Amino acid sequence: MTLKLPSTQARQYTTSRQLIAGDDFNNLVAQLNSEADGLTAGAGGTQAKALQLGAAVNTVSTVASANDSVKLPKGIPGLEVWIQNAGGGNSIQVFVYNTGTINNTDGAATGVALAASLTAATLYKCLRIDPTNGDIWVSK
After folding, report:
1. CA–CA separation, 31 vs 23, rounded Å?
2. At 139, which helix (H) or strand (E)?
3. Does 84 score more than 50 pLDDT?
4. Distance in angstroms (rounded) separating the CA atoms of residues 138 and 36
5. Reported pTM
6. Max intra-chain CA distance, the chain
7. CB 70 within 8 A of CB 51
8. Which CATH class is domain 22-139?
9. Beta bridge mates, 15
10. Residue 138 to residues 78, 105, 107: CA-CA distances in angstroms?
């Protein structure tokens, strides 16, 4: 079974003896351990044409031209998404799911560049969901 990132935050349970729903547990595991390899960045370098990421760890192995793009999943506070650009010499443009920012840059209109590097990956973390500005992400 391939785990995909959930689109909603995991439920919180009260401190007591109770069973955790299997779906909730699988969502938590997916947020930590899901992976996708051999991805192809969307051609065109825009949010609309970006490849939608659906795993916690993503290796983009095909980047046909400069600024081909990927899109982060819907933000959940605390969600971490790793992206490796293993696609040769071209950079990837990284966008947000809908509206929001990445490192204080408009993540929907311009996104941020992820340089090509076979040995490095960049971590994107959703800090919060702002009612006005959307998903607030930072990268490291």
Report:
1. 12
2. strand 134-139
3. yes
4. 21
5. 0.86
6. 54
7. yes
8. mainly beta
9. none
10. 11, 10, 11
Give the gyration radius of the chain's Cα atoms: 15
Query: Distances in Å between the alpha carbon of 11 and those of 6, 34, 136?
Result: 12, 19, 21
Give the C-alpha distances (Å, rounded to integers) separating 88 from 41, 61, 73.
Answer: 12, 8, 24
What pLDDT does 2 receive? 57
Q: Which residues contact 138 (CB under 8 A, 6 or more apart)?
A: 102, 103, 124, 125, 127
Q: How far apart are the first and last CA of the chain?
A: 30
Q: Residue 38 and residue 29: Cα distance in Å, rounded? A: 21
Q: What is the mean pLDDT of residues 58-68?
A: 92
Nearest residue to 37 via CA among 101, 86, 99, 108 = 86
> In the structure encoding, which two tokens stand for residue 82, read together?
């790793």
Neighbouring CB atoms inside 10 A of 67's CB total 16
Reported in sequence order, the residue ranges of 1-133 that DSSP labels E, i.e. its strands, are 35-40, 51-52, 57-62, 68-71, 80-85, 92-95, 100-102, 105-106, 112-114, 122-130
pLDDT of 120 reads 74
21: tokens are 């729903």
